[in-house]
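# nightly structure sweep
# worker-07 picked up a monomer target from the shared queue
# config: single-sequence mode, recycle default, output format = structure tokens
# input follows
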Amino acid sequence: MSHFLNIESVQEQHLIHEDIRVDGISILDNVHKLENHYTDFKHQFDGLIISFCSKGTMTVKINFRTYEIKAGSIIVVLPQLMIDPIQVSEDFQIVSIVMSIDFISAFPILRDFITNNEIRWNPVIHSSKQENNLFEDFVNFLKKYYTNKPGNKNTRKTVLQYLIFALITSITDSYSTLSQESGIVRKRKDEIIDNFYLLISQQARTERRVHFYADKLNLSPQYLTTLIKSQTGKSVNHWIEHVVIMHAKSLLSSTSLSIKEISQELNFIDPSSFCRYFKRCTQLSPNIFRNK
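# output follows
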């Protein structure tokens, strides 16, 4: 059984008080302790998760591969990837920073981060002792600021944004020192799914046909559709829409392009088609989203 989560459900589940809630961001302690039989469920989050383990161990499948998490591990789970916890030690402690798609879409640095295939293929990295101490201090400061700094929410959000940007820059630097993973034997299905994710990250801005992606992968549309649904819990169209809407939200949030210009940028035949597509996927019109 799978649990599908977004930022609002996470804040509700973890009883984040209204006084400290910040739109699009939550910082959580020990997400595994809030749910009975945590390892009985798979989880998908509609956003980005960055976690730091300070104690204990956890065995988990992320994006179809098994990883061992331990003290000093940094875990980066890109939007809507399947998280399948297998075993958690009793002393396991972890801090998680979760960000919504709306929050990510507004900032190019985050958009680039979540389309980085090095991160997709290596969601768990183990820091050196020196890096471990720095990351732990930084994450603890972030957590303290988030939980102990009531006041103007817009100011708090801005400060948290810059702190998270600094953290992501440091994590990206850690990834840059990794060589391409070698010695890992990937199943054919895993390769197809990885290549599908890569294709939609590159092409979905202008290409929304399932047939297009099946042709690129040398598969029938039916086989691709069945495989993606069975392995990710989401349809091919859902994943395409996910990327298109992320680009649309980014253009609406961070540029002054008109709705007509955005519809052209995303290869819609006219602004009305884009507006219908956006509203069907988000329940909001582009103008309402831009002005909220």
